[in-house]
Design brief:
The structure is a single chain. By secondary structure, the protein is α/β, with parallel strands linked by helices. Strands 1-9-8-5-4-2-3 form a seven-stranded mixed β-sheet, sandwiched between helices. A three-stranded antiparallel β-sheet has the order 7-6-10, with no helix packed on it. Helix 6 links the parallel strand 4 and strand 5. Helix 5 runs parallel beside helix 6. The longest helix is centred in the C-terminal third of the chain and has 31 residues. The chain is globular, with a radius of gyration of 21 Å. The structure holds pyridoxal-5'-phosphate. The site of pyridoxal-5'-phosphate has 15 residues, from helix 3 and helix 4.
Length: 374
């Protein structure tokens, strides 16, 4: 059994992927070829946002937005403590300080009340200036932007949606990557919409930000290729990856639907010795991961071991919250405490999740889980 099954997906899209790749080989425009713009236009329409700027990966995407906003030394950027490294790493890369915020115990997303407390704490200490919050749509579930945007507005913060795991998700019909002042996503192969290498994109309705990002993407380019007006990056998306994404985008909406069905089947088959993910009313997750909570760390170890014995792969996202990582030791004087993240990190694990998971697979996974006592 595969944790994420890219081979079955390839067997469905093989012809169109090969055709798209062949077209790139024929025209030879490997850097910023026509597929890049075609993809950007289609992704903008898909997410319901005016501008899509593709780039090299989801980490560069985050960093580019912070660079465009001029975030740097002396600035505080609020990020969830329970997320992937990139979200906080980019804050350090631009010289600002990541301020971790505890997550909600049911959705695993940033807790808006804790966000408010963290901003208040930074203001009281008076060393850093609160500038940006980067909510993450963890495991594919869109964060609570209604509440987050209220807090952000009150304190004058910009909101950057990290939609690396949620592309394809929606809330009452509004698509992921359309929240906040800007949003980013990743096309890392294992993400809901993945390419066959690294890739990413930025989404915004802000025309000025979009032109800045296009300049930053190519060494701070000005009016022509050898005019450099700012410090930028080399952060373009390869034409070949854009071509692959165009082929994958054709089947993507069906895959998102298939994932919902698999979740329904998981819900029906799994008994409640583990806690299943909560999806608020009106929300459709992209199900980057199907993450469940064991009753304790020991229970998780037992479950994962039993599944492994049965040939069923599982993963732990994330075993160590970011505030506990050595890389962020230096900012600890600015930090609070994160009991929810720490509790979740000790109990969470992810089951196989991809659009090609069979009912039979789900039944064998459930049989193992249901037989393990807490
Ligand atoms: C994967 C991921 C990223 C980074 O994407 P890359 O394309 O691997 O650089 C950023 N944030 C989150 C939450 C992610 O899961």
């Amino acid at each position: 059994m595969e944790f994420i099954d890219l081979k079955s997906q390839y067997s469905v899209i093989e012809d169109s992927v090969k055709e798209r790749i062949q077209q790139v080989l024929d025209h030879g425009k490997y850097i910023m070829g026509p597929e890049v713009e075609e993809l950007e236009n289609r992704l903008a329409v898909f997410s319901g946002v005016k501008h899509c700027i593709s780039c090299a990966n989801g980490t560069d995407a985050l960093q580019m937005v912070l660079m465009a906003w001029g975030v740097g030394p002396g600035d505080a950027v609020f990020v969830p403590s329970f997320t992937f490294m990139s979200t906080a790493e980019v804050v350090r890369l631009v010289g600002a300080v990541p301020i971790f915020v505890d997550c909600d115990g049911r959705t695993f997303n940033i807790n808006p009340q804790h966000l408010r407390e963290a901003i208040e704490g930074v203001r009281q200490r008076g060393v850093l200036i609160p500038k940006v919050v980067i909510p993450v749509d963890l495991f594919g579930l869109i964060a609570d932007y209604d509440a987050i945007e209220l807090v952000a507005m009150e304190y004058g913060l910009k909101v950057l949606e990290d939609a690396a795991q949620s592309f394809g998700a929606s809330v009452n019909g509004r698509m992921a990557a359309s929240f906040g002042h800007a949003a980013t996503t990743s096309f890392f192969p294992a993400k809901p919409l993945g390419c066959y290498g690294d890739g990413g994109a930025i989404f915004t309705n802000d025309q000025e930000l979009a032109s800045l990002l296009k300049s930053i993407r190519v060494h701070g380019q000005g009016s022509d290729k050898y005019d450099n007006v700012r410090i930028g990056l080399n952060a373009r998306l390869d034409t070949l990856q854009a071509a692959i994404l165009l082929a994958k985008l054709d089947v993507f909406p069906e895959e998102i639907k298939a994932r919902q069905l698999i979740v329904e089947n998981y819900k029906a088959a799994l008994m409640r010795s583990i806690r299943l993910p909560l999806i608020p009313e009106g929300s459709v997750s992209a199900w980057a991961q199907y993450s469940v909570l064991a009753q304790s760390e020991a229970h998780r170890t037992k479950l994962m071991e039993a599944l492994k014995q049965a040939g069923i792969p599982t993963m732990v996202y994330y075993r160590k919250p970011l505030h506990m990582q050595t890389a962020f030791e230096d900012g600890r004087e600015h930090q609070g405490s994160y009991p929810v993240s720490e509790n979740i990190a000790s109990r969470i694990f992810s089951l196989p999740m991809h659009p090609f998971l069979e009912q039979q697979d789900i039944e064998s996974i459930a049989a193992v889980i249901n037989s393990v006592e807490a």
